[in-house]
Amino acid sequence: MSPLTLSLHLLSPPSMITSLLFILFLLLLLHHAITPYFSKKLSCPPPSPRGLPILGNLHQLGPLPHRTLHGMSLRHGPLLLLKLGHVPALIASSVDTAREVLKTQDNLFASRPSLKVPATLFYDNKDIAFAPYGDYWRQVKKLSVLHLMSSKMVDSFKLIREQEVALLVAAIARASASRSTVNMSELFASLSKHIISRVIVGKPSREEEWDSVLHLMIQECSLMLGSFHVGDYFPALSWAGKLTGLDAKLKTTMATASDILEAIIEQRLARSRDHGDHHDREPECFVDVLLSAVKDNTMGVSFGKENIKAIVTDLFGAGTDSTYIVMEWTMAELVRNPKAMKKLKEEIRGIVGSNPTVSEEDLASMPYLKAVIKETLRLHPPGPLLVPRELMQDTKMQGYDIPKKTRVFVNVWAIGRDPGVWEDPEEFKPERFFGNSIDFKGQDYELLPFGGGRRVCPGIGFAVVVLELALANVVHRFDWELPNEKRGEELDMDEVFGQTVRRKNSLQLVAKPC
Ligand code: HEM
Protein backbone atom coordinates (compact mmCIF):
# COMPACT_ATOMS: atom_id res chain seq x y z
CA MET A 1 0.00 0.00 0.00
CA SER A 2 0.12 2.44 -0.67
CA PRO A 3 0.50 2.61 -2.07
CA LEU A 4 -0.40 5.84 -2.89
CA THR A 5 -2.42 2.99 -1.75
CA LEU A 6 -0.96 3.04 1.66
CA SER A 7 -2.75 6.24 2.52
CA LEU A 8 -3.45 6.11 6.18
CA HIS A 9 -5.15 9.41 5.90
CA LEU A 10 -4.90 10.59 9.39
CA LEU A 11 -2.79 13.62 10.00
CA SER A 12 0.35 14.98 8.43
CA PRO A 13 2.31 16.74 11.17
CA PRO A 14 3.48 19.88 9.33
CA SER A 15 0.05 20.86 8.15
CA MET A 16 -1.71 19.66 11.26
CA ILE A 17 -1.32 22.60 13.61
CA THR A 18 -2.29 25.28 11.10
CA SER A 19 -5.13 23.15 9.88
CA LEU A 20 -6.42 22.50 13.39
CA LEU A 21 -6.33 26.20 14.24
CA PHE A 22 -8.10 26.88 11.03
CA ILE A 23 -10.75 24.28 11.78
CA LEU A 24 -11.34 25.65 15.22
CA PHE A 25 -11.99 29.05 13.77
CA LEU A 26 -14.36 27.69 11.17
CA LEU A 27 -16.09 25.52 13.67
CA LEU A 28 -16.86 28.43 15.90
CA LEU A 29 -18.53 30.08 12.94
CA LEU A 30 -20.28 26.99 11.79
CA HIS A 31 -21.00 25.35 15.06
CA HIS A 32 -24.71 25.40 14.52
CA ALA A 33 -24.38 23.70 11.13
CA ILE A 34 -22.85 20.61 12.63
CA THR A 35 -24.99 17.82 13.91
CA PRO A 36 -23.39 15.87 16.75
CA TYR A 37 -21.88 12.68 15.37
CA PHE A 38 -23.02 10.21 17.95
CA SER A 39 -26.60 11.30 17.38
CA LYS A 40 -27.61 7.65 17.46
CA LYS A 41 -26.97 6.66 21.06
CA LEU A 42 -25.02 3.42 21.24
CA SER A 43 -26.15 1.24 24.11
CA CYS A 44 -22.73 -0.34 24.54
CA PRO A 45 -19.94 1.59 22.76
CA PRO A 46 -16.31 0.46 22.95
CA PRO A 47 -14.09 2.37 25.38
CA SER A 48 -13.26 5.86 24.24
CA PRO A 49 -10.65 8.23 25.69
CA ARG A 50 -12.17 11.53 26.73
CA GLY A 51 -11.91 14.15 23.99
CA LEU A 52 -12.92 17.76 23.35
CA PRO A 53 -16.30 18.93 22.14
CA ILE A 54 -16.38 19.14 18.33
CA LEU A 55 -12.78 17.98 17.78
CA GLY A 56 -13.30 14.76 19.71
CA ASN A 57 -9.93 12.98 19.88
CA LEU A 58 -8.51 14.52 16.72
CA HIS A 59 -6.07 16.83 18.51
CA GLN A 60 -4.67 13.92 20.59
CA LEU A 61 -3.19 11.94 17.73
CA GLY A 62 0.11 13.81 17.57
CA PRO A 63 2.77 13.54 14.89
CA LEU A 64 3.03 9.73 15.06
CA PRO A 65 -0.59 8.50 15.42
CA HIS A 66 0.32 4.78 15.40
CA ARG A 67 2.39 5.32 18.56
CA THR A 68 -0.24 7.52 20.23
CA LEU A 69 -2.97 5.00 19.46
CA HIS A 70 -0.79 2.21 20.82
CA GLY A 71 -0.44 4.18 24.09
CA MET A 72 -4.21 4.69 24.20
CA SER A 73 -4.84 0.99 23.65
CA LEU A 74 -2.54 0.13 26.57
CA ARG A 75 -4.63 2.41 28.81
CA HIS A 76 -8.14 1.71 27.51
CA GLY A 77 -8.01 -1.72 25.83
CA PRO A 78 -7.45 -3.20 22.37
CA LEU A 79 -10.72 -1.96 20.88
CA LEU A 80 -11.26 1.80 20.96
CA LEU A 81 -13.91 4.00 19.47
CA LEU A 82 -12.53 7.48 18.89
CA LYS A 83 -14.23 10.55 17.61
CA LEU A 84 -12.12 12.16 14.93
CA GLY A 85 -14.01 15.37 14.45
CA HIS A 86 -17.34 14.24 13.12
CA VAL A 87 -16.23 10.73 12.26
CA PRO A 88 -16.31 7.61 14.46
CA ALA A 89 -13.04 5.67 14.23
CA LEU A 90 -12.53 2.16 15.51
CA ILE A 91 -8.97 1.20 16.41
CA ALA A 92 -8.18 -2.52 16.62
CA SER A 93 -4.83 -3.12 18.36
CA SER A 94 -4.66 -6.82 19.23
CA VAL A 95 -4.48 -10.17 17.45
CA ASP A 96 -8.11 -10.94 18.39
CA THR A 97 -9.57 -7.60 17.31
CA ALA A 98 -7.54 -7.66 14.07
CA ARG A 99 -8.84 -11.16 13.32
CA GLU A 100 -12.37 -9.92 13.93
CA VAL A 101 -11.95 -7.06 11.41
CA LEU A 102 -9.93 -8.91 8.77
CA LYS A 103 -11.49 -12.36 8.98
CA THR A 104 -14.58 -12.98 11.10
CA GLN A 105 -16.40 -9.83 9.96
CA ASP A 106 -14.29 -9.07 6.89
CA ASN A 107 -17.44 -8.99 4.73
CA LEU A 108 -18.69 -5.98 6.72
CA PHE A 109 -15.35 -4.19 7.00
CA ALA A 110 -14.28 -4.54 3.36
CA SER A 111 -15.14 -1.08 2.09
CA ARG A 112 -13.05 2.09 2.13
CA PRO A 113 -14.11 5.57 3.21
CA SER A 114 -14.35 8.13 0.42
CA LEU A 115 -11.68 10.68 1.33
CA LYS A 116 -11.12 13.96 -0.41
CA VAL A 117 -7.53 13.50 -1.68
CA PRO A 118 -7.77 9.93 -3.04
CA ALA A 119 -11.26 10.59 -4.38
CA THR A 120 -9.84 13.49 -6.42
CA LEU A 121 -6.54 11.88 -7.44
CA PHE A 122 -8.21 8.66 -8.46
CA TYR A 123 -11.13 10.17 -10.41
CA ASP A 124 -13.76 9.45 -7.80
CA ASN A 125 -12.05 6.34 -6.39
CA LYS A 126 -11.66 4.52 -9.72
CA ASP A 127 -8.38 3.00 -8.51
CA ILE A 128 -8.11 -0.30 -6.61
CA ALA A 129 -7.10 0.69 -3.09
CA PHE A 130 -9.81 3.28 -2.52
CA ALA A 131 -12.59 1.81 -4.64
CA PRO A 132 -15.60 1.09 -2.44
CA TYR A 133 -16.38 -2.58 -1.93
CA GLY A 134 -18.44 -3.92 -4.83
CA ASP A 135 -18.36 -5.11 -8.43
CA TYR A 136 -16.00 -2.45 -9.74
CA TRP A 137 -13.39 -3.13 -7.04
CA ARG A 138 -13.74 -6.90 -7.58
CA GLN A 139 -13.13 -6.55 -11.33
CA VAL A 140 -10.13 -4.23 -11.15
CA LYS A 141 -8.47 -6.20 -8.39
CA LYS A 142 -8.95 -9.43 -10.33
CA LEU A 143 -7.53 -7.86 -13.47
CA SER A 144 -4.47 -6.48 -11.69
CA VAL A 145 -3.76 -9.76 -9.93
CA LEU A 146 -4.15 -11.78 -13.11
CA HIS A 147 -2.00 -9.56 -15.32
CA LEU A 148 0.49 -8.05 -12.90
CA MET A 149 0.69 -9.67 -9.50
CA SER A 150 -0.03 -13.40 -9.92
CA SER A 151 3.01 -15.61 -9.32
CA LYS A 152 3.15 -16.40 -13.05
CA MET A 153 3.33 -12.69 -13.90
CA VAL A 154 5.80 -11.96 -11.09
CA ASP A 155 8.06 -14.73 -12.48
CA SER A 156 7.84 -13.18 -15.93
CA PHE A 157 9.42 -9.93 -14.62
CA LYS A 158 12.60 -11.75 -13.50
CA LEU A 159 14.85 -10.19 -16.13
CA ILE A 160 13.62 -6.69 -15.25
CA ARG A 161 14.44 -7.26 -11.58
CA GLU A 162 17.88 -8.69 -12.33
CA GLN A 163 18.79 -5.81 -14.64
CA GLU A 164 17.59 -3.15 -12.22
CA VAL A 165 19.35 -4.76 -9.23
CA ALA A 166 22.55 -4.92 -11.31
CA LEU A 167 22.21 -1.16 -11.92
CA LEU A 168 21.73 -0.61 -8.18
CA VAL A 169 24.89 -2.57 -7.35
CA ALA A 170 26.81 -0.66 -10.05
CA ALA A 171 25.67 2.69 -8.61
CA ILE A 172 26.83 1.63 -5.13
CA ALA A 173 30.16 0.42 -6.54
CA ARG A 174 30.71 3.81 -8.22
CA ALA A 175 30.01 5.68 -5.00
CA SER A 176 32.23 3.27 -3.10
CA ALA A 177 35.11 3.72 -5.60
CA SER A 178 34.94 7.49 -5.19
CA ARG A 179 34.79 7.04 -1.40
CA SER A 180 31.44 8.85 -1.29
CA THR A 181 28.72 8.18 1.19
CA VAL A 182 25.88 6.29 -0.47
CA ASN A 183 22.36 7.63 -0.14
CA MET A 184 20.66 4.24 0.10
CA SER A 185 17.21 5.79 0.46
CA GLU A 186 17.56 7.41 -2.93
CA LEU A 187 19.01 4.30 -4.60
CA PHE A 188 16.35 1.96 -3.19
CA ALA A 189 13.60 4.39 -4.26
CA SER A 190 15.07 4.55 -7.74
CA LEU A 191 15.22 0.74 -7.96
CA SER A 192 11.57 0.35 -6.94
CA LYS A 193 10.28 3.05 -9.26
CA HIS A 194 12.12 1.72 -12.31
CA ILE A 195 10.92 -1.82 -11.75
CA ILE A 196 7.34 -0.69 -11.44
CA SER A 197 7.54 1.63 -14.43
CA ARG A 198 8.94 -1.15 -16.61
CA VAL A 199 6.06 -3.48 -15.84
CA ILE A 200 3.35 -0.86 -16.02
CA VAL A 201 4.51 1.34 -18.88
CA GLY A 202 6.68 -1.11 -20.80
CA LYS A 203 10.06 0.61 -20.49
CA PRO A 204 12.27 2.11 -17.84
CA SER A 205 10.91 5.57 -17.21
CA ARG A 206 14.50 6.88 -17.19
CA GLU A 207 14.29 6.64 -21.00
CA GLU A 208 11.35 9.04 -21.08
CA GLU A 209 11.44 12.80 -20.89
CA TRP A 210 8.56 12.73 -18.39
CA ASP A 211 10.50 10.51 -15.97
CA SER A 212 11.43 13.12 -13.40
CA VAL A 213 8.08 14.92 -13.67
CA LEU A 214 6.13 11.70 -13.21
CA HIS A 215 8.08 10.73 -10.13
CA LEU A 216 7.84 14.21 -8.66
CA MET A 217 4.15 13.99 -9.25
CA ILE A 218 3.91 10.58 -7.54
CA GLN A 219 5.85 12.04 -4.61
CA GLU A 220 3.48 14.99 -4.57
CA CYS A 221 0.44 12.66 -4.59
CA SER A 222 2.00 10.67 -1.81
CA LEU A 223 2.48 13.80 0.31
CA MET A 224 -1.06 14.93 -0.34
CA LEU A 225 -2.46 11.49 0.49
CA GLY A 226 -0.84 11.81 3.89
CA SER A 227 -2.10 15.33 4.43
CA PHE A 228 -5.05 16.51 6.43
CA HIS A 229 -8.24 17.49 4.67
CA VAL A 230 -10.75 19.17 6.94
CA GLY A 231 -13.68 17.68 5.04
CA ASP A 232 -12.60 14.13 5.86
CA TYR A 233 -13.35 14.77 9.52
CA PHE A 234 -16.04 17.46 9.24
CA PRO A 235 -18.08 16.64 6.13
CA ALA A 236 -20.00 19.92 6.51
CA LEU A 237 -16.69 21.70 5.89
CA SER A 238 -15.57 19.80 2.81
CA TRP A 239 -15.35 23.12 0.92
CA ALA A 240 -12.64 24.32 3.35
CA GLY A 241 -9.86 22.83 1.17
CA LYS A 242 -10.48 25.77 -1.15
CA LEU A 243 -9.31 28.12 1.59
CA THR A 244 -6.33 26.05 2.78
CA GLY A 245 -4.97 25.79 -0.77
CA LEU A 246 -5.10 21.98 -0.76
CA ASP A 247 -7.81 21.86 -3.42
CA ALA A 248 -5.81 24.11 -5.74
CA LYS A 249 -2.70 22.00 -5.23
CA LEU A 250 -4.69 18.85 -5.94
CA LYS A 251 -6.01 20.37 -9.15
CA THR A 252 -2.52 21.28 -10.40
CA THR A 253 -1.07 17.86 -9.56
CA MET A 254 -4.02 16.16 -11.21
CA ALA A 255 -3.56 18.18 -14.37
CA THR A 256 0.17 17.34 -14.61
CA ALA A 257 -0.46 13.67 -13.86
CA SER A 258 -3.27 13.52 -16.36
CA ASP A 259 -1.08 14.99 -19.15
CA ILE A 260 1.69 12.46 -18.53
CA LEU A 261 -0.69 9.54 -18.33
CA GLU A 262 -2.42 10.71 -21.50
CA ALA A 263 0.99 10.72 -23.26
CA ILE A 264 1.73 7.21 -21.98
CA ILE A 265 -1.64 5.95 -23.17
CA GLU A 266 -1.19 7.58 -26.60
CA GLN A 267 2.29 6.03 -26.91
CA ARG A 268 0.93 2.57 -26.19
CA LEU A 269 -2.01 3.04 -28.57
CA ALA A 270 0.37 4.17 -31.33
CA ARG A 271 2.55 1.12 -30.74
CA SER A 272 -0.45 -1.12 -30.95
CA ARG A 273 -1.54 0.54 -34.25
CA ASP A 274 2.00 0.19 -35.68
CA HIS A 275 2.38 -3.47 -34.78
CA GLY A 276 -1.25 -4.58 -35.00
CA ASP A 277 -2.02 -7.38 -32.59
CA HIS A 278 1.40 -8.94 -33.07
CA HIS A 279 3.40 -7.08 -30.46
CA ASP A 280 6.55 -8.98 -31.19
CA ARG A 281 8.99 -6.12 -30.83
CA GLU A 282 8.23 -5.14 -27.24
CA PRO A 283 6.48 -7.18 -24.61
CA GLU A 284 3.03 -6.16 -23.42
CA CYS A 285 2.85 -3.93 -20.38
CA PHE A 286 0.04 -3.39 -17.87
CA VAL A 287 -1.22 -0.25 -19.64
CA ASP A 288 -1.73 -2.44 -22.76
CA VAL A 289 -3.78 -4.87 -20.68
CA LEU A 290 -5.95 -2.03 -19.41
CA LEU A 291 -6.35 -0.62 -22.93
CA SER A 292 -7.48 -4.03 -24.19
CA ALA A 293 -10.07 -4.10 -21.41
CA VAL A 294 -11.42 -0.77 -22.70
CA LYS A 295 -11.33 -1.86 -26.35
CA ASP A 296 -12.89 -5.28 -25.84
CA ASN A 297 -15.31 -4.08 -23.19
CA THR A 298 -14.46 -7.10 -21.05
CA MET A 299 -14.82 -5.63 -17.59
CA GLY A 300 -18.59 -5.84 -17.25
CA VAL A 301 -18.41 -2.39 -15.62
CA SER A 302 -17.99 1.05 -17.14
CA PHE A 303 -14.28 1.38 -17.91
CA GLY A 304 -12.41 4.08 -19.83
CA LYS A 305 -9.32 6.29 -19.83
CA GLU A 306 -10.02 7.75 -16.39
CA ASN A 307 -10.06 4.27 -14.92
CA ILE A 308 -6.69 3.52 -16.52
CA LYS A 309 -5.21 6.73 -15.15
CA ALA A 310 -6.53 6.07 -11.66
CA ILE A 311 -5.23 2.50 -11.56
CA VAL A 312 -1.82 3.39 -12.99
CA THR A 313 -1.33 6.26 -10.51
CA ASP A 314 -2.37 3.96 -7.67
CA LEU A 315 0.02 1.19 -8.70
CA PHE A 316 2.95 3.54 -9.28
CA GLY A 317 2.59 4.69 -5.69
CA ALA A 318 1.89 1.20 -4.34
CA GLY A 319 4.76 -0.41 -6.15
CA THR A 320 7.31 2.23 -5.24
CA ASP A 321 6.89 3.62 -1.75
CA SER A 322 6.28 0.71 0.56
CA THR A 323 8.80 -1.55 -1.14
CA TYR A 324 11.71 0.86 -0.90
CA ILE A 325 10.74 1.88 2.64
CA VAL A 326 11.11 -1.75 3.73
CA MET A 327 14.55 -1.96 2.07
CA GLU A 328 15.62 1.19 3.93
CA TRP A 329 14.44 -0.12 7.31
CA THR A 330 16.02 -3.53 6.70
CA MET A 331 19.44 -2.05 5.90
CA ALA A 332 19.14 0.28 8.89
CA GLU A 333 18.36 -2.64 11.22
CA LEU A 334 21.24 -4.70 9.80
CA VAL A 335 23.70 -1.85 10.28
CA ARG A 336 22.48 -1.42 13.86
CA ASN A 337 22.72 -5.18 14.46
CA PRO A 338 26.13 -6.34 13.19
CA LYS A 339 25.58 -9.91 14.39
CA ALA A 340 22.50 -10.22 12.20
CA MET A 341 24.41 -8.65 9.28
CA LYS A 342 27.25 -11.16 9.74
CA LYS A 343 24.88 -14.10 9.95
CA LEU A 344 23.11 -12.98 6.78
CA LYS A 345 26.38 -12.51 4.90
CA GLU A 346 27.46 -16.00 5.95
CA GLU A 347 24.18 -17.51 4.80
CA ILE A 348 24.48 -15.84 1.39
CA ARG A 349 28.14 -16.77 0.97
CA GLY A 350 27.30 -20.36 1.91
CA ILE A 351 24.90 -20.50 -1.05
CA VAL A 352 26.59 -18.44 -3.78
CA GLY A 353 30.25 -18.83 -2.75
CA SER A 354 32.53 -16.44 -4.62
CA ASN A 355 29.97 -15.75 -7.33
CA PRO A 356 29.49 -11.96 -7.14
CA THR A 357 25.79 -12.06 -7.98
CA VAL A 358 22.91 -13.58 -6.06
CA SER A 359 20.27 -14.89 -8.46
CA GLU A 360 16.59 -15.48 -7.81
CA GLU A 361 17.12 -19.26 -7.80
CA ASP A 362 19.45 -18.85 -4.80
CA LEU A 363 16.84 -17.07 -2.67
CA ALA A 364 14.82 -20.19 -1.82
CA SER A 365 17.78 -21.51 0.20
CA MET A 366 18.10 -18.40 2.38
CA PRO A 367 15.84 -18.79 5.42
CA TYR A 368 17.74 -16.19 7.44
CA LEU A 369 17.19 -13.55 4.72
CA LYS A 370 13.46 -14.29 4.84
CA ALA A 371 13.47 -14.05 8.64
CA VAL A 372 15.32 -10.70 8.47
CA ILE A 373 12.61 -9.30 6.17
CA LYS A 374 9.80 -10.62 8.40
CA GLU A 375 11.45 -9.11 11.46
CA THR A 376 11.77 -5.74 9.70
CA LEU A 377 8.12 -5.84 8.67
CA ARG A 378 7.13 -6.68 12.26
CA LEU A 379 8.94 -3.64 13.63
CA HIS A 380 8.47 -1.24 10.72
CA PRO A 381 5.30 -1.96 8.74
CA PRO A 382 5.18 0.88 6.16
CA GLY A 383 1.42 1.14 6.75
CA PRO A 384 1.23 0.83 10.53
CA LEU A 385 -2.55 1.38 10.55
CA LEU A 386 -3.18 -0.33 7.17
CA VAL A 387 -5.41 1.50 4.69
CA PRO A 388 -8.60 2.66 6.41
CA ARG A 389 -11.68 0.49 6.06
CA GLU A 390 -15.31 1.56 6.40
CA LEU A 391 -17.94 -0.50 8.15
CA MET A 392 -20.85 -1.20 5.81
CA GLN A 393 -23.57 -1.89 8.42
CA ASP A 394 -24.10 -1.69 12.19
CA THR A 395 -22.42 -4.56 13.97
CA LYS A 396 -21.23 -5.84 17.33
CA MET A 397 -17.67 -6.65 18.20
CA GLN A 398 -16.59 -8.23 21.47
CA GLY A 399 -20.02 -7.28 22.83
CA TYR A 400 -19.67 -3.60 21.84
CA ASP A 401 -21.90 -1.73 19.36
CA ILE A 402 -20.14 -0.36 16.30
CA PRO A 403 -22.17 1.95 14.07
CA LYS A 404 -22.33 1.75 10.26
CA LYS A 405 -19.88 4.07 8.44
CA THR A 406 -17.31 3.83 11.24
CA ARG A 407 -13.78 4.31 9.87
CA VAL A 408 -11.60 1.39 10.90
CA PHE A 409 -7.85 1.25 11.53
CA VAL A 410 -5.95 -1.91 12.46
CA ASN A 411 -2.82 -0.93 14.38
CA VAL A 412 -0.48 -3.62 13.07
CA TRP A 413 2.47 -1.65 14.45
CA ALA A 414 1.06 -2.10 17.98
CA ILE A 415 0.41 -5.81 17.39
CA GLY A 416 4.01 -6.23 16.22
CA ARG A 417 5.20 -4.90 19.59
CA ASP A 418 2.75 -6.71 21.85
CA PRO A 419 4.78 -8.43 24.61
CA GLY A 420 1.94 -10.93 25.00
CA VAL A 421 2.68 -12.12 21.46
CA TRP A 422 6.41 -11.41 20.96
CA GLU A 423 9.24 -12.03 23.39
CA ASP A 424 11.51 -8.95 23.73
CA PRO A 425 9.34 -7.13 21.20
CA GLU A 426 11.64 -4.10 20.81
CA GLU A 427 14.63 -6.22 19.83
CA PHE A 428 15.61 -7.10 16.27
CA LYS A 429 15.81 -10.90 16.39
CA PRO A 430 15.17 -12.59 13.04
CA GLU A 431 15.74 -15.97 14.74
CA ARG A 432 12.32 -15.65 16.37
CA PHE A 433 10.82 -16.83 13.07
CA PHE A 434 12.71 -20.12 13.12
CA GLY A 435 10.73 -23.12 14.33
CA ASN A 436 7.32 -21.60 13.56
CA SER A 437 5.32 -20.94 10.42
CA ILE A 438 4.32 -17.32 11.09
CA ASP A 439 4.13 -15.49 7.77
CA PHE A 440 2.95 -12.11 6.54
CA LYS A 441 0.43 -13.24 3.94
CA GLY A 442 -2.60 -12.24 5.99
CA GLN A 443 -3.35 -15.55 7.73
CA ASP A 444 -1.33 -14.92 10.90
CA TYR A 445 -2.88 -12.04 12.80
CA GLU A 446 0.28 -11.33 14.80
CA LEU A 447 2.11 -10.21 11.63
CA LEU A 448 0.02 -8.13 9.24
CA PRO A 449 2.20 -5.68 7.27
CA PHE A 450 0.17 -6.42 4.11
CA GLY A 451 -3.23 -6.42 5.84
CA GLY A 452 -5.59 -9.34 5.39
CA GLY A 453 -9.01 -10.49 4.22
CA ARG A 454 -10.63 -9.28 1.02
CA ARG A 455 -8.62 -6.06 0.90
CA VAL A 456 -5.24 -7.74 1.52
CA CYS A 457 -2.36 -6.29 -0.49
CA PRO A 458 -2.26 -8.11 -3.84
CA GLY A 459 1.39 -7.06 -4.35
CA ILE A 460 2.98 -9.33 -1.70
CA GLY A 461 4.69 -11.69 -4.15
CA PHE A 462 5.67 -8.79 -6.40
CA ALA A 463 7.28 -6.89 -3.50
CA VAL A 464 8.93 -9.74 -1.62
CA VAL A 465 11.06 -11.04 -4.48
CA VAL A 466 12.34 -7.49 -5.17
CA LEU A 467 13.13 -7.04 -1.47
CA GLU A 468 14.95 -10.37 -1.24
CA LEU A 469 16.95 -9.98 -4.44
CA ALA A 470 18.03 -6.40 -3.79
CA LEU A 471 18.95 -6.95 -0.14
CA ALA A 472 20.80 -10.22 -0.78
CA ASN A 473 22.92 -8.58 -3.49
CA VAL A 474 23.83 -5.42 -1.60
CA VAL A 475 24.65 -7.36 1.58
CA HIS A 476 26.73 -9.90 -0.36
CA ARG A 477 28.73 -7.42 -2.42
CA PHE A 478 29.66 -4.82 0.20
CA ASP A 479 30.57 -4.31 3.81
CA TRP A 480 28.42 -1.57 5.31
CA GLU A 481 29.27 1.11 7.84
CA LEU A 482 28.00 4.42 9.06
CA PRO A 483 29.87 7.56 7.91
CA ASN A 484 32.39 9.21 10.27
CA GLU A 485 33.19 5.93 12.00
CA LYS A 486 29.98 6.02 13.96
CA ARG A 487 28.91 2.76 15.57
CA GLY A 488 25.82 0.96 14.23
CA GLU A 489 23.76 1.60 17.33
CA GLU A 490 24.20 5.34 16.81
CA LEU A 491 22.09 5.23 13.67
CA ASP A 492 18.86 7.16 14.28
CA MET A 493 15.59 5.31 13.66
CA ASP A 494 13.33 8.39 13.69
CA GLU A 495 10.08 8.04 11.81
CA VAL A 496 7.90 10.41 9.90
CA PHE A 497 4.21 9.70 9.49
CA GLY A 498 2.38 10.40 6.26
CA GLN A 499 0.91 8.24 3.58
CA THR A 500 3.44 5.66 4.82
CA VAL A 501 5.74 5.68 7.84
CA ARG A 502 9.30 6.03 6.66
CA ARG A 503 12.69 7.05 7.99
CA LYS A 504 12.74 10.71 8.88
CA ASN A 505 16.34 11.06 7.69
CA SER A 506 17.68 9.42 4.57
CA LEU A 507 19.91 6.40 5.08
CA GLN A 508 23.49 7.47 4.34
CA LEU A 509 25.98 4.61 4.46
CA VAL A 510 29.55 3.81 3.48
CA ALA A 511 29.93 0.74 1.25
CA LYS A 512 33.20 -1.20 0.97
CA PRO A 513 33.53 -3.98 -1.61
CA CYS A 514 34.13 -7.33 0.06
C1 HEM B 1 6.58 -4.15 1.06
C2 HEM B 1 5.71 -3.69 0.19
C3 HEM B 1 4.24 -3.48 0.44
C4 HEM B 1 3.55 -3.36 1.61
C5 HEM B 1 4.10 -3.41 3.03
C6 HEM B 1 2.15 -3.19 1.27
C7 HEM B 1 1.13 -3.05 2.18
C8 HEM B 1 -0.21 -2.90 1.85
C9 HEM B 1 -1.27 -2.76 2.82
C10 HEM B 1 -1.10 -2.72 4.32
C11 HEM B 1 -2.43 -2.65 2.13
C12 HEM B 1 -3.83 -2.52 2.73
C13 HEM B 1 -4.36 -3.88 3.09
C14 HEM B 1 -5.64 -3.88 3.88
O1 HEM B 1 -6.43 -2.93 3.82
O2 HEM B 1 -5.87 -4.89 4.57
C15 HEM B 1 -2.11 -2.72 0.72
C16 HEM B 1 -3.03 -2.66 -0.29
C17 HEM B 1 -2.70 -2.67 -1.61
N1 HEM B 1 -1.44 -2.86 -2.15
FE1 HEM B 1 0.27 -3.14 -1.15
N2 HEM B 1 2.03 -3.22 -0.10
C18 HEM B 1 3.28 -3.39 -0.65
C19 HEM B 1 3.58 -3.50 -1.99
C20 HEM B 1 2.68 -3.42 -3.02
C21 HEM B 1 3.02 -3.54 -4.41
C22 HEM B 1 4.41 -3.81 -4.97
C23 HEM B 1 1.85 -3.38 -5.11
C24 HEM B 1 1.59 -3.41 -6.59
C25 HEM B 1 2.47 -3.57 -7.53
C26 HEM B 1 0.78 -3.16 -4.14
C27 HEM B 1 -0.54 -2.95 -4.45
C28 HEM B 1 -1.55 -2.80 -3.53
C29 HEM B 1 -2.95 -2.58 -3.89
C30 HEM B 1 -3.49 -2.46 -5.30
C31 HEM B 1 -3.67 -2.51 -2.68
C32 HEM B 1 -5.16 -2.29 -2.51
C33 HEM B 1 -5.88 -3.61 -2.31
C34 HEM B 1 -7.38 -3.43 -2.08
O3 HEM B 1 -7.80 -2.40 -1.57
O4 HEM B 1 -8.11 -4.37 -2.39
N3 HEM B 1 1.33 -3.21 -2.88
N4 HEM B 1 -0.74 -2.88 0.58
UniProtKB/TrEMBL annotation:
**Gene Ontology MF, one:** monooxygenase activity
Q: Which Pfam families match?
A: p450
UniProt KW keywords: Heme, Iron, Metal-binding, Monooxygenase, Oxidoreductase
Q: Where are the transmembrane segments?
A: none
Annotated residues that bind heme are located at: C457
Enumerate the cofactors the protein uses: heme
Source domain of life: Eukaryota
* Keyword set includes Metal-binding: yes
- Classification via Gene3D superfamilies: Cytochrome P450 (1.10.630.10)
Q: Which family does it belong to?
A: Belongs to the cytochrome P450 family.
Q: What is this protein called?
A: Cytochrome P450 71A1-like
- Give me the gene this protein comes from: LOC109713015
